[in-house]
Every structure is written in structure tokens, then in C-alpha cells.
């Protein structure tokens, strides 16, 4: 088998000879260059060296003794290090050569593509020209590394990266190893593939998977809404033409809140002694 056909794998080769710019390694039939920049140590002729094989920019087989995070068929969480419109995103596999996760394997909507720093669970795939590309893990692969949740995990705060996304929802792999589904109604906006998100478990299924909500808990939501309304009030010098008597559509247009959420937030501000209402207006309470 030609060495190029082993691209994406680790092999053990023998140092055939030294060169000014590295070492030539051999399997007894074919030589491959291990450039000095890719050598993890200094080697002697006849020494056995484990290397990772990959195609260089010209499609020729090259070697590195700096071991990658993964090889073909192995999976790992890989960091996005670059993005290129119309091409895809590049992943760090622990060697100088990053690998491409192509546009065809990414979401249709580019706004939910991974960005630099996001993490995706992927492996190396080798095409017919023996070039290396990334391949995202499928649900069965994620299932193979997952841990089953139990009823005691209900309502628990969780976080982790999004490993799959669709219009109907997003799928999360939590730090605990749970596989979770986030219905579109349980997210304020669609998270990116690979984005780390935080939420809470709102249901534990019989198979040990979970449903997760990214929406704030009611108390947290009230505090966030109250802070937003108070900031708006201050921007108007302490007076605004909105109160719990305002029309729902006016509240929705100005604050993006339902009337019920608005009333809860105003109620908190009044309880905290920050505002008072007169007619259809709300005013900042002087300290």
C-alpha cells in the first residue's frame, strides 16, 4: 500500500537517512519526508519513529511526529480556528495543518456557522484524492459517548456545545455527558453550531436524554426585564408613557415583552421602591 493511501493515520517508519532539512523515513518500499519543523525530537538512522501522515499542499504525502488530536475514524472536540465564507471553517487537530469542515457539512444559514473558539465533535475523513477533511459526528456517535440523565437531574443548570442545529431546535451535549434537545420555543435565538450555551433541564426522558431550556428562569427573567425597563425610564429622564394600563401591542413594540411580563417587572420595580405610576405614566421615584 502506498504511503499516501495511509493519509490521516499513524504509522511507524524507519529513519532511512538524515537530510539538511529533516529526515527521510521509509516503510521499506517508499520514502517520505519528515521535515525538521515537524520532528518532535532528533532521530538516528535506523530508528523507528511513529508519525502521522497527511498530504502536503501539492498532494504529496508528508509526515509529522507531532501527534494530532485525532486520526481518521477517531473523534474529538476540536476548536474552530478560522472561517472562510464560501469554503467552511478550519479546525485545529494539534498539528501545523488545520483541517477543513466544508460548507456542505455546515448549516445552510451562515449566521449559525461556528465562529473562532467554538467547539465541534468531529473526525477526519479522507477523500478520493487522499486529502483530509473534517466530518461532524452523527447522533449515534454522540450517543456512544453519552451518559444517561436521571430524574434527580431535573431542573439542573447545564452547559455545553451545540452539536446539531435545525429549524425545529438545537441539540446540546452537556458537560455531564447528557444529550439534550432544545426546542425552538425554548431559545430566544438560534445558537450557532459549536456554540457553548447554558440552560436548565426541563424534562428527563425514559431513554436518559433531556429537554433543555435556554430561557431565563421566571425570577431571573423578571429581574432582567425590570432592569431593561428601568434603563429605558432613566433614558427619558425618569418618566415614560407606559404603565400596567398600556395596550399589550404598545408594550410589545417598545419592550418586546408580553403585558404579563411587563406587569411583573413593573411590580418588582414598585416593590423595590424605584418607580410609581400615575394614570398611564410611570415615574422614577426620587430617593
TrEMBL record:
Alphabetized InterPro entries for the sequence: CvfB_fam, CvfB_S1_2nd, CvfB_S1_3rd, CvfB_S1_st, CvfB_WH, NA-bd_OB-fold, S1_domain, WH-like_DNA-bd_sf
MF term (GO), any: nucleic acid binding
Domain S1 motif: 155-217
Short name of one Pfam family: S1_2
Domain of life, per lineage: Bacteria
Family statement: Belongs to the CvfB family.
PANTHER family, sorted: CONSERVED VIRULENCE FACTOR B (PTHR37296:SF1)
Protein name: S1 motif domain-containing protein
Species of origin: Neobacillus piezotolerans
Amino acid at each position: 500500500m502506498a504511503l499516501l493511501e495511509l493519509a490521516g493515520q499513524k504509522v511507524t517508519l524507519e529513519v532511512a537517512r538524515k537530510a539538511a532539512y529533516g529526515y527521510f523515513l521509509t516503510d521499506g518500499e517508499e520514502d517520505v519526508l519528515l521535515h525538521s519543523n515537524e520532528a518532535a525530537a532528533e532521530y538516528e538512522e535506523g530508528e523507528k519513529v511513529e508519525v502521522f501522515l497527511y498530504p502536503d499542499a501539492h498532494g504529496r504525502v508528508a509526515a509529522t511526529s507531532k501527534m494530532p488530536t485525532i486520526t481518521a475514524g477517531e473523534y474529538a472536540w476540536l476548536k474552530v480556528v478560522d472561517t472562510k465564507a464560501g469554503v467552511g471553517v478550519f479546525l485545529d487537530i494539534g498539528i501545523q495543518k488545520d483541517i477543513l469542515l466544508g460548507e456542505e457539512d455546515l448549516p445552510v444559514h451562515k449566521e449559525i456557522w461556528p465562529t473562532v473558539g467554538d467547539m465541534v465533535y468531529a473526525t477526519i475523513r479522507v477523500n478520493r484524492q487522499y486529502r483530509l477533511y473534517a466530518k461532524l459526528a452523527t447522533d449515534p456517535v454522540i450517543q456512544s459517548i453519552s451518559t444517561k440523565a436521571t430524574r434527580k437531574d431535573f431542573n439542573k443548570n447545564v452547559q455545553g456545545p451545540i452539536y446539531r442545529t435545525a429549524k425545529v431546535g438545537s441539540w446540546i451535549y452537556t458537560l455531564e455527558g447528557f444529550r439534550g434537545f432544545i426546542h425552538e420555543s425554548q431559545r430566544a435565538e438560534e445558537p450557532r453550531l459549536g456554540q457553548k450555551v447554558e440552560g436548565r433541564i426541563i424534562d428527563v426522558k425514559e431513554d436518559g436524554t433531556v429537554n433543555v431550556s435556554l430561557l431565563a428562569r421566571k425570577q431571573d427573567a423578571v429581574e432582567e426585564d425590570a432592569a431593561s425597563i428601568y434603563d429605558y425610564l432613566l433614558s427619558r429622564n425618569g418618566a415614560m408613557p407606559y404603565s400596567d394600563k398600556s395596550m399589550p401591542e404598545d408594550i410589545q413594540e417598545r419592550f418586546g415583552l408580553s403585558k404579563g411580563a411587563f406587569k411583573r417587572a413593573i411590580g418588582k420595580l414598585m416593590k423595590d421602591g424605584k418607580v410609581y405610576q400615575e394614570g398611564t405614566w410611570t415615574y422614577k421615584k426620587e430617593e
